[in-house]
Design goal:
Pfam families: Polysacc_deac_2
Helix content: 25-40%
InterPro entries: Divergent_DAC, Glyco_hydro/deAcase_b/a-brl
Order of helices and strands: HHHEEEEEEHEHEHEHHEHHEHEEHEHEE
Largest sheet: 9 strands, parallel
CATH superfamily: Glycoside hydrolase/deacetylase
Strand content: 15-25%
Oligomer: single chain
GO biological process, one term: carbohydrate metabolic process
Protein name: Divergent polysaccharide deacetylase
Number of helices: 13
CATH class: Alpha Beta
């Protein structure tokens, strides 16, 4: 009766199997299934290939892949100097990369570069000394060639167009002696005018930084022995002929340690030393060794500086005339006119002056008009004979 009540409508309920047989069948089924699974897994495992890490690619294949991924080398920048591990330098320029051999100045082991302007200090940092171009001494930081071959002459050189045409360099000296004159020269003169700082002056570092920020190239005026010494003296640290000839350059080093960021040295007085080749050779050799130029102010007709500089491999320039031997405006204007005629005759000219009010006023007026006549005022380094430059 119970089975009929739970039987689906219209279907006949099959007789129930005995519990003992149903449990035994389930056990046998499960055992068979387990045996089949285990046997299949064992068969699969036994027939799998042995596991091993993949063999490394051959070195040749790796090299080929790296070569395919390696970018093309960047184009060599011109005038880049590199110091080699074993000593010596190489240069990259339009001719390719090659060892840099010095055949111009074997005395100093100098490095010659093409277009030194490419090594010029960026304008934004031009008032800051390059630490790699300084030597710590008892006299203060002295300029020195960098281990990469750069010279202070290259790095601190003033900018100019680099084109041809009539070019004039004007050097205004005595900065640091008069504070008002120094301020006017730094702030009012065109950037192309070179400023020369007196070693005995005051606040030199402050004026140097202001001058460099305004685009001026810098020289150091070193006191040197004049005729009539000691009755006529350039100051307590005058470089004397006897000391220079003997290689005793302490007074020169004192002057050189008073300021930084200059491209060379200009004489203050010094007619007697400039006339003595035995004294000039150690003096100019020291400047060349340190990567500086020498500017002869051109006041002495007995100067031997040009010939000794040429023989010594020193970068050199000589002034054609002094602009303000007389401080009258009419005389200064006349001298500037003479300087311009010299430049038009030979292409370039160099004039010197001092930071007097009349000189600054006259140079300002002349420079504005000269630019309209196609004359470029350039830093003195642009007109110097440089035996280390080639091109």
């Amino acid at each position: 009766m119970r089975d009929e009540l739970y039987s689906p409508l219209g279907q006949t309920l099959a007789p129930a199997a005995r519990p003992q047989r149903r449990s035994l069948g389930r056990w046998l089924g499960a055992a068979c299934a387990t045996a089949l699974v285990a046997g299949g897994s064992a068969f699969t495992a036994l027939n799998q290939p042995a596991f091993a890490p993949p063999a490394p690619p051959s070195p040749v294949k790796v090299a080929e892949q790296v070569a395919e991924r390696r970018p093309e080398p960047a184009e060599r920048q011109p005038n880049v100097l590199r110091m080699e591990q074993g000593g010596g330098f190489t240069i990259s320029d339009a001719e390719g990369e090659r060892p840099l051999v010095d055949d111009a100045n074997p005395m100093t082991g100098s490095i010659r570069v093409l277009e030194p302007g490419s090594l010029r200090q960026p304008a934004a940092f031009s008032h800051m000394p390059e630490q790699a171009l300084l030597e710590a001494t008892d006299f203060g930081p002295l300029p020195v060639r960098g281990t990469d071959g750069r010279r202070p002459l290259d790095v601190y050189a003033g900018a100019w167009s680099g084109t041809g045409g009539t070019r004039i360099a004007i050097v205004v000296g005595g900065l640091g002696v008069s504070q008002s004159g120094s301020m006017r020269a730094v702030e009012e003169l065109p950037a192309g005018v070179t400023l020369a700082f007196a070693a005995e002056g005051n606040s030199l570092d402050r004026w140097m930084q202001a001058g460099r920020r305004n685009g001026h190239e810098i020289l150091l005026q070193a006191p040197m022995e004049p005729f009539g010494y000691p009755d006529v003296s350039a100051g307590p640290h005058t470089l004397k002929v006897a000391d220079a000839a003997a290689g005793r350059l302490d007074d020169l080093h004192w002057s050189m340690g008073r300021i930084t960021n200059y491209v060379g040295v200009m004489n203050y007085m010094g007619a007697r030393l400039n006339a003595d080749p035995a004294a000039l050779q150690p003096f100019l050799g020291e400047l060349s060794k340190r990567g500086l130029l020498y500017l002869d102010d051109g006041t002495s007709l007995r100067s031997e500086a040009r010939d000794v500089a040429m023989a010594n491999g020193t970068s050199f320039a000589s002034a054609d005339l002094v602009i303000d031997t007389e401080r009258e405006p009419a005389s200064i204007e006349k001298q500037l006119d003479v300087l311009e005629r010299i430049a038009r005759a030979k292409g370039t000219a160099i004039g010197t002056a001092s930071a007097f009010d009349a000189s600054i006023d006259g140079i300002k007026r002349w420079a504005a008009a000269a630019a309209e006549r196609g004359i470029e005022i350039v830093p003195v380094s642009a007109l110097a004979f440089d035996p280390e430059a080639r091109g």
